[in-house]
Each structure stands twice: as structure tokens, then as C-alpha cells.
Amino acid sequence: MLHESTHVTIGPPRVGRFSGAASCQGRDGRVKPARMASAPAAAEAAPKPYREVTFGAVFLGVIQGAIMTAAFVYIGLRLGFGLPGSTVAAILGFALLRGVGRNALGIEGAGSIVENNINQTIASGINTASAGVVFTFPALLLLGEDFDVGTIILSAIAGSFMGIVVIIPLRKQMIEIERLKFPSGVAVATILKSPGAGAAKAIRLGIGFVIAVGITLLTKFEVVPETLTIGAWFLDDPEQASGGLGILALGTSLSLSMANLGAGLLSGKGGLPFALGGALAWWVIAPFVVGQGWLPAGPDGALPSGEALWGAVYGAMLRPVGIGVLIGGALSGVVLSFPALKGAIKSLRAAAKLAKQGDAASADELPPKVLLFGLAGAFLALFGVAIVGSDGAISMAISVAVAGTIWLALAGLIVAQATGATDISPLSGLALIAVTLMLALTANNVVLAITIGVAVCVATNQCADMMSDLKTGHLIGAVPRRQQLVQFGVAWIGPAIAVGTVLLLWSGGEGGANGFGPGTSLPAPQAGALQGMVEGVVSGDAPLDKYVSGAAIGGSLALFPISGLGVLVGLAMYLPFEITLGYGIGCVVSMGLEKKKGRRFYGDYLVPIAAGFIVGEALTSLTLTMIELAGG
Prior knowledge:
By secondary structure, the protein is mainly alpha-helical. The protein has 25 helices and 4 strands. It has helices spanning about 40-45, 55-80, 85-105, 115-125, 130-135, 140-145, 150-165, 170-175, 185-190, 200-220, 260-265, 270-290, 305-335, 340-355, 370-390, 395-420, 425-440, 445-475, 480-490, 495-505, 525-540, 545-555, 565-570, 575-595, 600-630, and strands at about 25, 30-35, 225-230, 255. The strands form 2 sheets. The protein has a two-stranded antiparallel ribbon. Helix 13 (about 305-335) runs antiparallel to helix 23 (about 565-570) and helix 17 (about 425-440) packs parallel to helix 21 (about 525-540).
């Protein structure tokens, strides 16, 4: 991997940018001018432009983006966080654009580095809506609120366009002047610079996909159990747990989920705090609560047991404390993001100065008029959403649209700066704050508050993704304007697919039950946290003692040098531990293999296989759900 400070750009040259005579290096090491070729010979020898924005790249990017959006909505409901899709898109891009287009179909120059970059830019631009939607919209379903699907989609689309237009003017400042790291963007650029390895990685991704499909089908058709019971979680008689730490519950269950394992393999060391948070919640806090007799007694005055005991521990303790930890961790993340905000504002001022000098109007960037037109259109869409949600209250709609736009821009700047520095962003915390602000402005209009929250969350994630893609393009010699144009062209696709997938999974519950939420295989932890917060604000009857104690824990976790630790621990309290345990096993395996085999083995083998695990399980589960619904 290139050292970032050297700022070396590798990739195809931009045609038409170089002039002057060619040169060569003699044996003595001195650079000598080469002989000038004749005009006809120079014209004949001039290289053809590299394939970049082509029908194949756009078509493949849209297909991959649509598939990954649906798959990662499933993963977001299962694990509570999103995953980047650029790596998967880049690997498959080389296999299809170069392998099929150039080798099988004989298309000259197919599968160039910059063409594949367009493919992954489109795919990730579509997929980025999955996290923004899945963190917010499912809360409306969990709350049982009535809403208009078209309004939700329109809000998400408005947020998607706003995220693009807000962040594009900062490209030159953040990437070319400040040279922020954007680790994910650098990682994708590394893949794009190694086209020879693309076919081998695609085969490994396919192997992971087939394995995941096979195991998922075996569990869905009950050939093998979906959850392996390793030992009893609690003793049937909770009275035996009195005193001390109670039962340290070494027994547990393990979910045979390849998506969990794949996510852990991708995360490695960075995901270990999430797994440890689950162990803390279910192996230490839960037994201690039972041992101290802090659970509410049943109607007969006795403590619950068995499944009822699990539900009591989760509902009365882990869920509210987890909400507090999540909120505390998110708020501390926002506080810690103030330096990033300061840097973003500085970047914005510098970008405005460059624009006055006419630099922003160069051929490499979209003209400011296009950006202003896009921002105005997205704002009007947001205003229309607010009008519908407020039943025509114009003053409320104006305040909501203005506040939403300002917070959206502010949150987008924070996330872009934080992602550029560390690749970790306080997305969920910013979404919680946005919904809380909207509840205050709308007099507790839950549907409107969460609808605007959808726009803010999608836009914020779009800011980070757009800038990361532009970093990738910068490192391989792509033209920024072309990436910006194609992302504009597909920004409306992801929100519709993400919302549709959420509704599909909600309708696909077994026996008419909800398709996701606490107690199901898709716990939806982020949406559950938002649901709990909204219920507490609206009812005024929230378990404040548990929220406050959890917030104190989440805030104190920010003192550790691990980014997002409070949010990860809070989310882990939501998930059944059999899911978190599988994720943790993946983290440990990834760490061990990387230490033994090296970082290159991680990129060449673990990344594509893990991606196959994730996409394989998600698409199989979605397909089975659609078949069940089609069959009544």
C-alpha cells in the first residue's frame, strides 16, 4: 500500500493533459530528450482514450448496487450496522468487465481501471442508502405508526441528492489539499490497481457465496438447527443465582449465520469491542441482575424462569440500559467530532475561496450552478415531505425543512471529515439527534420526525461515501466530474430499493408475526434504539434511571482509544448473544489468520470469501421470503 504522504497517483494518464517532447533515460542516469516523431506517426501512435463511463460499467454498477442494497438492509437489521459495498463491486467488476467483456466478447479495452471505478462508484452510491434507511425507517413499523410509503421514499431520495451536492464542493480541499486518508477509498484503489488478481478474488467470492447459500438453505429447511445450543443460558431455577455475580452462564447458543461470520472476518480487530460488549451484557451483567433479584416478579410473586427469564432480563434491564449506552456513546462521539467539524468548516471556507478564484469551474468539477440546482430541488422535496407530514402547516414545514437542511449539511461535514481521518463516523448518533430535534419542532409528530430523520441519515452516509469514492478516483487518475455525474444519475435508486426491502422483510414474518424486531432473527438494534427513545420522549414515562446510567457508561467508554466503543457496546446489548458470538468468532479468526499469513492474505482471501458469505445468506433469505409471500 502506498504511503499516504507521498501522494503518488498510479493509473492511466488523463488523455490530453500532457504535452511536450517525450524523454528517455540514458545509461548514465541522465534524462535525454527523445526524437520528435512525425505528425502522422505521432497521430498513429497516440493512445486511445481509456474506457471510463460506458454502458457496461453503468449497467453492472446499477445491478450490483441494487443487489447489495437489498442484502445490506438485511445485514443492517440483523447486526445493527452497515457495510461498504465498494470492495465487492470492484472485485466483480474486473471479473465481468475485463473477464467477460474483454476476453469473452472481445471488446477492446474493456475492464480498464477507470471503467471499473465508475462501476464501483455507482454500486456504492446506490448501496449507501441501505444504512440510512435501515437505521431509521423500521422504527415506524416497530412503533405501529401509519405512514405513506411514497413520502418516505421521497424523503430518502431528497437526502441522497442533498448529500451529494453538500459534499462535492469540498472535494479539492479535503482530498488534494488536506490529503485526508479515507482508508476505505485507499483500499478500493489498491484493488483497482491490481486487475490481474480480480478474477481469482471473484472465484473466492463465488466460493463463499455457494457455501453461504448451502448452509442457509439447510437451516431454513430445518435440516440442521439454525441455532446450536452449547449450554444452558441460565439455570431453570433463578433462586440458585442469588448473591455475588450469580451464574456466569458459560453456556450459550451459536447462530449458524454465515453473514455474522463474514462480517466478523471483514471487521477483524476493529469489530472485537462489539463482540466483547455482547459477552459483557449476556455473560456478566445479565447473571448479576438475576443474582441480585433486580427483576420484577410475576403475578404470583415469583421470579420468571426459562424463556420468560430471558425476556425479563432483556426488556427490564439490557434494552433500556443499552439505549442509554448507545445515546451516551453517540453524544460523546459527536463531542469528539468537534475537531472534525472545525476542520470541515475550515475546508468549506477554503473551498469557497477557491470557487471565487474560478478554480471550481474547471473541467474536472461539476459547475456550481448544477450543484445549486440540485440543492434547491432536494430542499423543495424535503419541504414537500414536511408539508404532507404536517397536514399543511406551512410554518412548521418551513422550520422543519430549514432545520433539517442545516443539520443535514452540518452532519454531512462531520461525517466526511471523520471518515477521512479514521474511516469511522458517528452516523447513528447524528440520526438520533436529528429525530430528537424534529420531535421538538413538530410537537412530537413521530411520523414526520422520523421521516425527516430518514433524509438526514441517508444524506449523511452519502457524504461519506461520495468523498471516499472521489478519493479512490483521485488515486487512480479518474476524472472527478464523471464520478459526480454518474452518482447524481443513480442517487434515486437506492432509497426505493432499501425501503422496499424493509417492507418485504416486515411482511415475511413467520405465522403472521413481525418480520424483524426483538425476539426475531432480525433484531433491528438501531431502529429498536430509536423506537425506545421516541417512546420515552412521547410518553414522558421513560426508565430515566437506566437511560442515565447507560449514558454514563457510554460516555465513559469514549475515554478509551477505540473509536465508537460506546455505540458498539450499546448495540451489542440489543442482539441475542448467539448472533454476536458468531460475529466475535469471525473477528478472532480474522485476527489470527492475518497475524499468521499477513495483510495480503487478508485482502486476497478473507475479504472476498467473507463478502460471499454475507451476500449469499442475505440474498438466499430474501429470495425465500419473496417465494413465501408469492405463495400466500
